[in-house]
Amino acid sequence: MEPIGGTELRSVSYVDNYQLGNEFQRLIMAPDAGNSLTALLELPPNQAVELLHCETDDLKRHRISAYNNLPPFPSNRELIERAARYSFFATDNSSEPSNSTKVKTEPLDSGGSNPNSSDPTTGSESEKEKPSKRKEREKKEKGSTKKSKTTANQNSEEGEKLPYVHVRARRGQATDSHSLAERARREKINARMKLLQELVPGCNKISGTALVLDEIINHVQSLQRQVEYLSMRLAAANPRIDFNLDSLFSAGNGSLMDYNIANMATPMIWPESLMNGDRQEFQPQWHFQCLSQPAWVKDENGHNLVNSENSLLSFDSSANSGQLKMEL
Amino acid sequence: FTFPQTKHLPPSLSLSLPLNSRTLVMKTMNPHHQQKQPINLKSLRRRFALRFIRSLKKIHLQQNKTLKTTHLGHAIRPNKTHKLHNNGFMAAHRVKMAAYASMASAVGPRRAWTRAVLHRSTRPGSSSQTPVSRAQKLRSLVPGGEAMDMQSLLDETAHYIKCLSTQVRVMTCILDHCSSTAHQVN
Question: Which helix (H) or strand (E) holds A136?
Protein backbone atom coordinates (compact mmCIF):
# COMPACT_ATOMS: atom_id res chain seq x y z
CA MET A 1 0.00 0.00 0.00
CA GLU A 2 1.10 3.53 -0.36
CA PRO A 3 2.96 5.24 2.37
CA ILE A 4 0.66 6.69 4.93
CA GLY A 5 0.58 10.43 5.07
CA GLY A 6 -0.58 12.69 7.79
CA THR A 7 -4.15 12.91 6.52
CA GLU A 8 -4.60 9.21 6.45
CA LEU A 9 -3.34 8.98 9.93
CA ARG A 10 -5.96 11.47 10.95
CA SER A 11 -8.72 9.54 9.18
CA VAL A 12 -7.54 6.39 10.79
CA SER A 13 -7.67 8.06 14.14
CA TYR A 14 -11.27 9.16 13.51
CA VAL A 15 -12.21 5.64 12.62
CA ASP A 16 -10.47 4.25 15.60
CA ASN A 17 -12.32 6.53 17.92
CA TYR A 18 -15.36 4.43 17.22
CA GLN A 19 -13.96 1.01 16.98
CA LEU A 20 -10.79 0.66 18.96
CA GLY A 21 -10.05 1.46 22.49
CA ASN A 22 -8.05 4.30 23.86
CA GLU A 23 -4.85 2.30 23.90
CA PHE A 24 -4.70 2.07 20.18
CA GLN A 25 -5.43 5.75 19.90
CA ARG A 26 -2.41 6.42 21.98
CA LEU A 27 -0.45 4.02 19.86
CA ILE A 28 -1.35 5.77 16.66
CA MET A 29 -0.97 9.28 17.92
CA ALA A 30 2.51 8.59 19.12
CA PRO A 31 4.00 6.07 16.79
CA ASP A 32 7.54 6.94 17.52
CA ALA A 33 7.25 6.50 21.24
CA GLY A 34 8.53 2.96 20.98
CA ASN A 35 5.45 1.36 22.43
CA SER A 36 4.40 -2.15 23.03
CA LEU A 37 2.66 -2.75 19.70
CA THR A 38 5.70 -2.26 17.60
CA ALA A 39 7.69 -4.24 20.03
CA LEU A 40 5.15 -7.02 19.85
CA LEU A 41 4.89 -7.12 16.14
CA GLU A 42 8.59 -6.49 15.62
CA LEU A 43 7.68 -4.22 12.80
CA PRO A 44 8.59 -0.67 12.10
CA PRO A 45 5.90 1.73 13.26
CA ASN A 46 4.82 2.50 9.70
CA GLN A 47 3.83 -1.04 8.95
CA ALA A 48 2.08 -1.39 12.27
CA VAL A 49 -0.11 1.53 11.42
CA GLU A 50 -0.65 -0.03 8.01
CA LEU A 51 -2.02 -3.12 9.65
CA LEU A 52 -4.35 -1.07 11.73
CA HIS A 53 -5.38 0.85 8.66
CA CYS A 54 -6.26 -2.31 6.75
CA GLU A 55 -8.30 -3.51 9.64
CA THR A 56 -10.24 -0.31 9.82
CA ASP A 57 -11.00 -0.57 6.11
CA ASP A 58 -12.84 -3.79 6.70
CA LEU A 59 -14.60 -2.25 9.62
CA LYS A 60 -15.60 0.62 7.42
CA ARG A 61 -17.02 -1.71 4.87
CA HIS A 62 -18.95 -3.51 7.54
CA ARG A 63 -20.33 -0.32 8.88
CA ILE A 64 -21.46 0.84 5.46
CA SER A 65 -23.24 -2.40 4.79
CA ALA A 66 -24.85 -2.18 8.19
CA TYR A 67 -26.13 1.29 7.39
CA ASN A 68 -27.83 -0.15 4.36
CA ASN A 69 -29.92 -2.26 6.70
CA LEU A 70 -28.84 -5.38 4.92
CA PRO A 71 -27.12 -8.38 6.40
CA PRO A 72 -23.50 -8.61 5.29
CA PHE A 73 -23.96 -11.56 2.96
CA PRO A 74 -22.10 -11.62 -0.29
CA SER A 75 -25.25 -12.58 -2.17
CA ASN A 76 -26.88 -9.28 -1.28
CA ARG A 77 -24.43 -7.29 -3.29
CA GLU A 78 -26.86 -7.58 -6.16
CA LEU A 79 -29.55 -6.11 -4.01
CA ILE A 80 -27.27 -3.32 -2.90
CA GLU A 81 -26.51 -2.48 -6.48
CA ARG A 82 -30.15 -2.53 -7.41
CA ALA A 83 -31.09 -0.44 -4.42
CA ALA A 84 -28.42 2.05 -5.36
CA ARG A 85 -29.61 2.13 -8.93
CA TYR A 86 -33.19 2.37 -7.78
CA SER A 87 -32.51 5.33 -5.53
CA PHE A 88 -30.67 6.93 -8.38
CA PHE A 89 -33.70 6.50 -10.58
CA ALA A 90 -36.03 7.73 -7.89
CA THR A 91 -34.24 11.03 -7.68
CA ASP A 92 -33.79 11.13 -11.40
CA ASN A 93 -37.49 10.84 -12.06
CA SER A 94 -38.36 13.62 -9.73
CA SER A 95 -35.95 15.97 -11.40
CA GLU A 96 -37.12 15.14 -14.89
CA PRO A 97 -39.66 17.46 -16.40
CA SER A 98 -42.85 15.58 -16.71
CA ASN A 99 -43.36 16.16 -20.36
CA SER A 100 -42.62 12.51 -20.56
CA THR A 101 -45.09 11.69 -17.93
CA LYS A 102 -44.81 7.96 -17.78
CA VAL A 103 -42.77 6.67 -14.91
CA LYS A 104 -41.65 3.11 -14.78
CA THR A 105 -41.91 1.26 -11.53
CA GLU A 106 -38.62 -0.49 -11.21
CA PRO A 107 -38.89 -4.20 -10.61
CA LEU A 108 -36.94 -4.75 -7.47
CA ASP A 109 -37.47 -8.46 -7.26
CA SER A 110 -34.34 -10.51 -7.23
CA GLY A 111 -34.31 -13.16 -9.88
CA GLY A 112 -36.49 -13.45 -12.89
CA SER A 113 -39.78 -14.26 -11.22
CA ASN A 114 -41.51 -11.32 -12.80
CA PRO A 115 -41.94 -11.95 -16.50
CA ASN A 116 -42.41 -8.27 -17.17
CA SER A 117 -39.10 -7.28 -15.73
CA SER A 118 -37.04 -5.17 -18.04
CA ASP A 119 -33.76 -3.42 -17.74
CA PRO A 120 -34.02 -0.53 -15.34
CA THR A 121 -31.73 1.54 -17.49
CA THR A 122 -34.02 1.40 -20.49
CA GLY A 123 -37.16 1.21 -18.44
CA SER A 124 -38.20 4.81 -18.51
CA GLU A 125 -38.15 4.99 -22.29
CA SER A 126 -39.43 1.59 -23.28
CA GLU A 127 -42.33 2.06 -20.94
CA LYS A 128 -43.75 4.72 -23.13
CA GLU A 129 -44.36 2.24 -25.89
CA LYS A 130 -45.78 -0.56 -23.80
CA PRO A 131 -49.43 0.18 -23.36
CA SER A 132 -50.16 -2.61 -20.93
CA LYS A 133 -51.42 -1.90 -17.49
CA ARG A 134 -48.87 -3.12 -14.96
CA LYS A 135 -49.09 -3.86 -11.32
CA GLU A 136 -46.09 -5.23 -9.55
CA ARG A 137 -45.72 -6.87 -6.24
CA GLU A 138 -43.30 -5.86 -3.62
CA LYS A 139 -41.45 -8.48 -1.71
CA LYS A 140 -41.18 -8.20 2.00
CA GLU A 141 -37.43 -8.65 2.14
CA LYS A 142 -36.85 -5.50 0.18
CA GLY A 143 -35.35 -2.40 1.66
CA SER A 144 -37.13 0.34 3.45
CA THR A 145 -40.81 0.90 2.91
CA LYS A 146 -40.23 4.59 2.57
CA LYS A 147 -38.97 4.24 -0.96
CA SER A 148 -41.90 2.16 -2.02
CA LYS A 149 -44.36 4.59 -0.51
CA THR A 150 -42.86 7.57 -2.24
CA THR A 151 -42.84 5.75 -5.54
CA ALA A 152 -46.39 4.64 -4.99
CA ASN A 153 -47.40 8.20 -4.34
CA GLN A 154 -45.37 9.43 -7.25
CA ASN A 155 -46.75 6.84 -9.57
CA SER A 156 -50.31 7.24 -8.51
CA GLU A 157 -50.12 10.98 -8.78
CA GLU A 158 -48.46 10.78 -12.16
CA GLY A 159 -51.12 8.29 -13.07
CA GLU A 160 -53.68 11.01 -12.81
CA LYS A 161 -52.59 12.35 -16.12
CA LEU A 162 -51.97 9.04 -17.82
CA PRO A 163 -54.52 6.81 -19.43
CA TYR A 164 -52.91 3.82 -17.75
CA VAL A 165 -52.15 3.54 -14.11
CA HIS A 166 -48.91 2.22 -12.77
CA VAL A 167 -49.55 1.25 -9.25
CA ARG A 168 -47.34 -0.35 -6.71
CA ALA A 169 -48.76 -2.24 -3.80
CA ARG A 170 -47.45 -1.07 -0.49
CA ARG A 171 -46.16 -3.30 2.18
CA GLY A 172 -48.85 -5.31 3.93
CA GLN A 173 -51.68 -4.40 1.56
CA ALA A 174 -53.74 -6.44 -0.80
CA THR A 175 -52.29 -6.82 -4.23
CA ASP A 176 -55.54 -7.63 -5.95
CA SER A 177 -56.02 -5.83 -9.20
CA HIS A 178 -59.42 -4.57 -8.13
CA SER A 179 -58.21 -3.26 -4.82
CA LEU A 180 -55.26 -1.57 -6.48
CA ALA A 181 -57.52 0.25 -8.88
CA GLU A 182 -59.82 1.22 -6.07
CA ARG A 183 -56.94 2.47 -4.03
CA ALA A 184 -55.65 4.60 -6.89
CA ARG A 185 -59.11 6.05 -7.38
CA ARG A 186 -59.47 6.76 -3.68
CA GLU A 187 -56.11 8.49 -3.60
CA LYS A 188 -57.08 10.74 -6.47
CA ILE A 189 -60.32 11.67 -4.78
CA ASN A 190 -58.54 12.36 -1.51
CA ALA A 191 -56.07 14.61 -3.29
CA ARG A 192 -58.88 16.69 -4.72
CA MET A 193 -60.62 16.80 -1.37
CA LYS A 194 -57.46 18.29 0.10
CA LEU A 195 -57.50 21.02 -2.52
CA LEU A 196 -61.11 21.77 -1.74
CA GLN A 197 -60.32 21.92 1.94
CA GLU A 198 -57.83 24.65 1.25
CA LEU A 199 -60.42 26.57 -0.72
CA VAL A 200 -63.20 26.49 1.82
CA PRO A 201 -62.37 28.53 4.91
CA GLY A 202 -62.40 26.64 8.15
CA CYS A 203 -62.16 23.22 6.63
CA ASN A 204 -58.59 22.49 7.60
CA LYS A 205 -59.43 21.52 11.12
CA ILE A 206 -62.17 19.12 10.18
CA SER A 207 -61.15 15.54 9.67
CA GLY A 208 -63.30 13.11 7.81
CA THR A 209 -64.62 13.22 4.32
CA ALA A 210 -68.30 13.51 5.17
CA LEU A 211 -67.98 16.60 7.35
CA VAL A 212 -65.71 18.26 4.85
CA LEU A 213 -68.27 17.62 2.13
CA ASP A 214 -70.93 19.15 4.36
CA GLU A 215 -68.81 22.24 4.78
CA ILE A 216 -68.24 22.48 1.06
CA ILE A 217 -71.96 22.20 0.38
CA ASN A 218 -72.70 24.88 2.96
CA HIS A 219 -70.14 27.17 1.44
CA VAL A 220 -71.51 26.78 -2.08
CA GLN A 221 -75.04 27.35 -0.84
CA SER A 222 -74.04 30.49 1.01
CA LEU A 223 -72.25 31.83 -2.05
CA GLN A 224 -75.29 31.22 -4.20
CA ARG A 225 -77.52 32.92 -1.65
CA GLN A 226 -75.18 35.89 -1.67
CA VAL A 227 -75.43 36.12 -5.45
CA GLU A 228 -79.19 36.07 -5.24
CA TYR A 229 -79.28 38.77 -2.60
CA LEU A 230 -76.88 40.96 -4.51
CA SER A 231 -78.84 40.58 -7.69
CA MET A 232 -81.98 41.63 -5.84
CA ARG A 233 -80.22 44.73 -4.53
CA LEU A 234 -78.84 45.54 -7.93
CA ALA A 235 -82.20 45.13 -9.58
CA ALA A 236 -83.72 47.48 -7.04
CA ALA A 237 -80.94 50.00 -7.40
CA ASN A 238 -81.00 49.82 -11.21
CA PRO A 239 -83.38 52.68 -11.98
CA ARG A 240 -81.38 55.11 -9.91
CA ILE A 241 -78.07 54.27 -11.48
CA ASP A 242 -76.29 56.11 -14.20
CA PHE A 243 -74.09 53.51 -15.80
CA ASN A 244 -70.99 55.26 -16.85
CA LEU A 245 -68.42 52.66 -17.73
CA ASP A 246 -65.44 54.96 -17.75
CA SER A 247 -66.00 56.16 -14.24
CA LEU A 248 -66.66 52.60 -13.15
CA PHE A 249 -63.41 51.35 -14.49
CA SER A 250 -61.33 54.14 -13.11
CA ALA A 251 -62.75 54.03 -9.63
CA GLY A 252 -64.65 50.76 -9.61
CA ASN A 253 -61.77 48.54 -10.47
CA GLY A 254 -59.63 50.30 -7.95
CA SER A 255 -62.17 49.26 -5.38
CA LEU A 256 -62.32 45.82 -6.90
CA MET A 257 -58.65 45.31 -6.26
CA ASP A 258 -58.79 46.60 -2.76
CA TYR A 259 -61.80 44.61 -1.75
CA ASN A 260 -61.23 42.62 1.37
CA ILE A 261 -62.30 39.07 1.81
CA ALA A 262 -63.31 39.71 5.39
CA ASN A 263 -66.97 40.11 4.76
CA MET A 264 -67.26 36.76 3.10
CA ALA A 265 -68.09 35.30 6.49
CA THR A 266 -71.74 36.12 6.21
CA PRO A 267 -73.85 35.90 9.32
CA MET A 268 -77.12 34.07 9.16
CA ILE A 269 -79.19 37.21 9.46
CA TRP A 270 -79.51 37.36 5.70
CA PRO A 271 -82.49 35.05 5.16
CA GLU A 272 -84.40 36.89 7.87
CA SER A 273 -83.62 40.23 6.35
CA LEU A 274 -84.72 39.01 2.96
CA MET A 275 -88.10 38.27 4.46
CA ASN A 276 -88.32 41.79 5.81
CA GLY A 277 -87.96 43.46 2.46
CA ASP A 278 -87.05 46.63 4.22
CA ARG A 279 -83.98 47.88 2.56
CA GLN A 280 -83.50 51.00 4.57
CA GLU A 281 -82.97 48.99 7.71
CA PHE A 282 -80.53 46.71 6.09
CA GLN A 283 -78.30 49.22 4.43
CA PRO A 284 -76.41 50.35 7.52
CA GLN A 285 -75.87 46.71 8.45
CA TRP A 286 -74.54 46.00 5.01
CA HIS A 287 -72.20 48.93 5.11
CA PHE A 288 -71.04 47.87 8.52
CA GLN A 289 -70.11 44.48 7.17
CA CYS A 290 -68.39 45.95 4.17
CA LEU A 291 -64.90 47.14 4.73
CA SER A 292 -64.84 49.17 1.56
CA GLN A 293 -64.21 52.88 1.76
CA PRO A 294 -65.27 55.46 -0.78
CA ALA A 295 -61.92 57.27 -0.90
CA TRP A 296 -59.11 55.36 -2.54
CA VAL A 297 -55.57 56.62 -2.34
CA LYS A 298 -53.31 55.43 -5.10
CA ASP A 299 -50.58 54.28 -2.76
CA GLU A 300 -53.05 52.22 -0.86
CA ASN A 301 -54.27 50.83 -4.13
CA GLY A 302 -50.85 49.59 -5.06
CA HIS A 303 -50.19 48.18 -1.64
CA ASN A 304 -53.50 46.43 -1.34
CA LEU A 305 -53.27 45.31 -4.90
CA VAL A 306 -50.09 43.49 -4.00
CA ASN A 307 -51.74 42.03 -0.95
CA SER A 308 -54.83 40.79 -2.71
CA GLU A 309 -52.80 39.55 -5.60
CA ASN A 310 -50.53 37.76 -3.18
CA SER A 311 -53.45 36.21 -1.40
CA LEU A 312 -54.98 35.07 -4.65
CA LEU A 313 -51.68 33.96 -6.08
CA SER A 314 -50.75 32.30 -2.86
CA PHE A 315 -53.92 30.29 -3.03
CA ASP A 316 -53.12 29.17 -6.53
CA SER A 317 -49.51 28.54 -5.76
CA SER A 318 -50.38 26.62 -2.66
CA ALA A 319 -52.76 24.49 -4.60
CA ASN A 320 -50.24 23.98 -7.32
CA SER A 321 -47.42 23.37 -4.93
CA GLY A 322 -49.63 20.89 -3.17
CA GLN A 323 -50.02 19.04 -6.41
CA LEU A 324 -46.34 19.37 -7.12
CA LYS A 325 -45.46 17.97 -3.72
CA MET A 326 -47.58 14.94 -4.37
CA GLU A 327 -45.86 14.39 -7.67
CA LEU A 328 -42.52 14.50 -6.00
CA PHE B 1 -81.77 61.78 -13.54
CA THR B 2 -80.17 61.50 -16.89
CA PHE B 3 -80.75 58.73 -19.33
CA PRO B 4 -77.52 56.80 -19.72
CA GLN B 5 -75.77 57.03 -23.05
CA THR B 6 -74.96 53.64 -24.41
CA LYS B 7 -71.24 53.59 -24.86
CA HIS B 8 -69.89 50.72 -26.83
CA LEU B 9 -66.43 49.71 -25.78
CA PRO B 10 -63.99 49.45 -28.64
CA PRO B 11 -63.30 45.78 -29.30
CA SER B 12 -59.57 46.29 -28.90
CA LEU B 13 -60.05 47.19 -25.26
CA SER B 14 -61.96 44.04 -24.44
CA LEU B 15 -59.37 41.95 -26.24
CA SER B 16 -56.40 43.51 -24.54
CA LEU B 17 -57.78 43.18 -21.06
CA PRO B 18 -57.18 39.46 -20.53
CA LEU B 19 -53.56 39.85 -21.61
CA ASN B 20 -51.72 40.08 -18.38
CA SER B 21 -48.15 39.54 -17.39
CA ARG B 22 -49.41 37.50 -14.46
CA THR B 23 -50.81 34.82 -16.75
CA LEU B 24 -47.41 34.35 -18.33
CA VAL B 25 -45.74 34.19 -14.96
CA MET B 26 -48.17 31.63 -13.67
CA LYS B 27 -47.88 29.49 -16.74
CA THR B 28 -44.12 29.31 -16.47
CA MET B 29 -44.44 28.56 -12.81
CA ASN B 30 -46.27 25.34 -13.59
CA PRO B 31 -44.52 23.37 -16.25
CA HIS B 32 -46.11 20.20 -14.93
CA HIS B 33 -49.69 21.16 -15.65
CA GLN B 34 -50.48 20.67 -19.25
CA GLN B 35 -54.16 20.06 -19.14
CA LYS B 36 -55.31 22.57 -16.58
CA GLN B 37 -54.36 26.21 -16.69
CA PRO B 38 -54.22 28.00 -13.37
CA ILE B 39 -56.99 30.53 -13.00
CA ASN B 40 -55.86 34.09 -13.29
CA LEU B 41 -58.36 35.74 -11.00
CA LYS B 42 -57.47 39.29 -11.94
CA SER B 43 -58.29 38.89 -15.62
CA LEU B 44 -61.33 36.80 -14.72
CA ARG B 45 -62.55 39.64 -12.55
CA ARG B 46 -62.17 42.16 -15.32
CA ARG B 47 -63.84 40.01 -17.92
CA PHE B 48 -66.74 39.21 -15.66
CA ALA B 49 -67.15 42.83 -14.58
CA LEU B 50 -67.27 43.98 -18.18
CA ARG B 51 -69.84 41.47 -19.30
CA PHE B 52 -71.98 41.83 -16.22
CA ILE B 53 -72.13 45.60 -16.46
CA ARG B 54 -73.01 45.34 -20.12
CA SER B 55 -75.86 42.98 -19.37
CA LEU B 56 -77.02 45.17 -16.49
CA LYS B 57 -77.21 48.05 -18.92
CA LYS B 58 -79.27 45.95 -21.28
CA ILE B 59 -81.70 45.00 -18.57
CA HIS B 60 -81.91 48.60 -17.48
CA LEU B 61 -82.66 49.69 -21.00
CA GLN B 62 -85.32 47.07 -21.38
CA GLN B 63 -87.03 48.20 -18.24
CA ASN B 64 -86.89 51.82 -19.23
CA LYS B 65 -88.14 50.99 -22.69
CA THR B 66 -91.21 49.27 -21.33
CA LEU B 67 -91.78 52.19 -19.01
CA LYS B 68 -91.49 54.71 -21.80
CA THR B 69 -93.79 52.91 -24.20
CA THR B 70 -96.45 52.64 -21.57
CA HIS B 71 -96.20 56.30 -20.76
CA LEU B 72 -96.38 57.33 -24.34
CA GLY B 73 -98.83 54.80 -25.59
CA HIS B 74 -101.33 54.97 -22.73
CA ALA B 75 -101.04 51.30 -22.06
CA ILE B 76 -104.11 49.28 -21.41
CA ARG B 77 -102.32 47.05 -18.94
CA PRO B 78 -102.72 47.94 -15.29
CA ASN B 79 -99.83 49.55 -13.49
CA LYS B 80 -99.10 46.57 -11.33
CA THR B 81 -97.33 44.63 -14.05
CA HIS B 82 -95.09 47.56 -14.85
CA LYS B 83 -94.11 47.87 -11.26
CA LEU B 84 -93.35 44.20 -11.26
CA HIS B 85 -91.11 44.62 -14.24
CA ASN B 86 -89.03 47.18 -12.47
CA ASN B 87 -89.12 46.54 -8.80
CA GLY B 88 -90.44 43.00 -8.58
CA PHE B 89 -88.82 39.70 -8.14
CA MET B 90 -88.59 39.09 -11.87
CA ALA B 91 -86.03 41.85 -12.24
CA ALA B 92 -83.90 40.23 -9.54
CA HIS B 93 -84.21 36.90 -11.30
CA ARG B 94 -83.12 38.43 -14.56
CA VAL B 95 -80.14 40.08 -12.94
CA LYS B 96 -79.20 36.80 -11.31
CA MET B 97 -79.38 34.93 -14.60
CA ALA B 98 -77.37 37.67 -16.23
CA ALA B 99 -74.73 37.35 -13.53
CA TYR B 100 -74.38 33.60 -13.98
CA ALA B 101 -74.36 33.85 -17.75
CA SER B 102 -71.74 36.56 -17.79
CA MET B 103 -69.53 34.61 -15.40
CA ALA B 104 -69.86 31.49 -17.52
CA SER B 105 -68.99 33.37 -20.68
CA ALA B 106 -66.07 35.06 -18.95
CA VAL B 107 -64.59 31.67 -18.09
CA GLY B 108 -65.33 30.15 -21.44
CA PRO B 109 -66.40 26.67 -22.49
CA ARG B 110 -63.38 24.92 -21.08
CA ARG B 111 -65.13 23.94 -17.87
CA ALA B 112 -68.01 21.48 -17.68
CA TRP B 113 -70.09 23.68 -15.40
CA THR B 114 -69.76 26.72 -17.66
CA ARG B 115 -70.93 24.68 -20.60
CA ALA B 116 -73.92 23.53 -18.59
CA VAL B 117 -74.76 27.12 -17.63
CA LEU B 118 -74.41 28.42 -21.18
CA HIS B 119 -76.67 25.69 -22.54
CA ARG B 120 -79.21 26.30 -19.81
CA SER B 121 -81.18 28.75 -21.93
CA THR B 122 -82.43 26.05 -24.25
CA ARG B 123 -83.47 23.56 -21.58
CA PRO B 124 -85.42 25.26 -18.82
CA GLY B 125 -87.04 22.09 -17.51
CA SER B 126 -84.92 20.66 -14.70
CA SER B 127 -86.12 17.36 -13.39
CA SER B 128 -83.99 16.57 -10.37
CA GLN B 129 -84.87 14.24 -7.56
CA THR B 130 -84.66 15.37 -3.97
CA PRO B 131 -81.04 14.80 -3.00
CA VAL B 132 -80.51 12.00 -0.55
CA SER B 133 -76.79 11.76 -0.05
CA ARG B 134 -74.08 14.37 0.20
CA ALA B 135 -72.73 13.70 -3.23
CA GLN B 136 -76.18 14.20 -4.72
CA LYS B 137 -76.55 17.46 -2.89
CA LEU B 138 -73.29 18.64 -4.37
CA ARG B 139 -74.40 17.51 -7.80
CA SER B 140 -77.59 19.50 -7.49
CA LEU B 141 -75.64 22.59 -6.47
CA VAL B 142 -72.95 22.60 -9.12
CA PRO B 143 -74.38 23.21 -12.59
CA GLY B 144 -73.97 20.19 -14.78
CA GLY B 145 -73.03 18.02 -11.86
CA GLU B 146 -75.57 15.32 -12.53
CA ALA B 147 -73.57 13.48 -15.13
CA MET B 148 -70.10 13.62 -13.63
CA ASP B 149 -68.00 11.13 -11.78
CA MET B 150 -66.70 11.96 -8.34
CA GLN B 151 -63.26 13.14 -9.39
CA SER B 152 -64.41 15.64 -11.96
CA LEU B 153 -67.23 16.69 -9.66
CA LEU B 154 -64.69 17.71 -7.04
CA ASP B 155 -62.60 19.46 -9.68
CA GLU B 156 -65.55 21.40 -10.98
CA THR B 157 -66.62 22.28 -7.45
CA ALA B 158 -63.24 23.81 -6.73
CA HIS B 159 -63.32 25.92 -9.87
CA TYR B 160 -66.94 26.84 -9.28
CA ILE B 161 -66.23 28.04 -5.76
CA LYS B 162 -63.40 30.23 -6.99
CA CYS B 163 -65.54 31.78 -9.69
CA LEU B 164 -68.52 32.24 -7.38
CA SER B 165 -66.46 34.10 -4.82
CA THR B 166 -65.05 36.33 -7.55
CA GLN B 167 -68.57 36.97 -8.77
CA VAL B 168 -69.77 37.95 -5.31
CA ARG B 169 -66.86 40.30 -4.85
CA VAL B 170 -67.39 42.06 -8.14
CA MET B 171 -71.10 42.39 -7.58
CA THR B 172 -70.64 43.89 -4.15
CA CYS B 173 -68.16 46.37 -5.52
CA ILE B 174 -70.51 47.39 -8.29
CA LEU B 175 -73.32 47.77 -5.80
CA ASP B 176 -71.20 49.83 -3.47
CA HIS B 177 -70.03 52.07 -6.24
CA CYS B 178 -73.53 52.51 -7.59
CA SER B 179 -75.05 53.20 -4.22
CA SER B 180 -72.34 55.69 -3.39
CA THR B 181 -72.78 57.53 -6.68
CA ALA B 182 -76.51 57.46 -6.22
CA HIS B 183 -76.14 59.08 -2.84
CA GLN B 184 -73.86 61.70 -4.35
CA VAL B 185 -76.37 62.55 -7.04
CA ASN B 186 -79.20 62.83 -4.53
Answer: strand A135-136
Which residues in B lie closer than 8 A to residue A306 (C-beta atoms)?
none
Residues 6 or more apart in contact with residue B152 via CB below 8 angstroms: B112
CB contact under 8 Å between A230 and B42, yes or no, is no
pLDDT in tens, A284-295: 444 444 444 444
Q: Do A161 and B160 touch (CB under 8 A)?
A: no
Q: Does A313 touch chain B (CB under 8 A)?
A: yes
Q: How many CB pairs under 8 A join A and B?
A: 190
ipTM score here? 0.74
Residues B184 and B186: their CA atoms lie apart, in Å, by 5
Give the separation between CA A188 and CA B150, rounded to whole angstroms. Answer: 10
What distance in Å separates the CA atoms of residue B31 and residue A99, rounded to the nearest whole number?
8
In chain B, what residues touch A318 (CB-CB under 8 Å)? Answer: none
pTM for the model:
0.49
CB contact under 8 A, B141 and A224: yes
Q: What is the sign, positive or negative, of the torsion defined by CA atoms of A244, A247, A251, A254?
A: positive
Nearest residue to B8 via CA among A246, A13, A229: A246
Query: What is the mean pLDDT of the segment spanning A78-100?
Result: 50
Is the torsion defined by CA of B63, B66, B71, B77 positive or negative?
negative
State pLDDT tens for residues B48-71: 999 988 888 888 888 778 777 766
B17/A contact by beta carbon, under 8 A: no
Q: According to the 3-state scheme, what is the secondary structure of A53-68?
A: HHHHHHHHHHHHHHHC
Ramachandran quadrant class, B74 (left: phi over 0; alpha: psi -120 to 50; beta: rest): left
Q: Which residues contact A304 (CB under 8 A, 6 or more apart)?
A: A257, A258
Phi, psi of B43 (to 5 degrees): -70, -35
* pLDDT-wise least confident of A221-225, B13-17, B179-183: B13-17
Q: For chain A, which domains are there?
A: 178-249 (4.10.280)
- Determine what percent of chain B falls in helix, strand and coil, rounding each to the nearest 5: 70, 0, 30
Please give the pLDDT value at position A249: 58
B154 or A289, which is more confident? B154
In angstroms, the first-to-last Cα distance of chain A is: 45
The model's pLDDT over B70-116, given as tens digits with 9 standing for 90+, comes to 666 555 555 555 555 555 568 888 899 999 999 999 999 999 999 99
Q: If pLDDT is split at 50, 70 and 90, which confidence band does A175 have? A: confident
The confidence score (pLDDT) of residue B8 equals 47
Q: Which residues of A touch B92 (CB under 8 A)?
A: 228, 231-232, 234-236
Distance from the A281 Cα atom to the nearest Cα atom in chain B, whole angstroms: 15
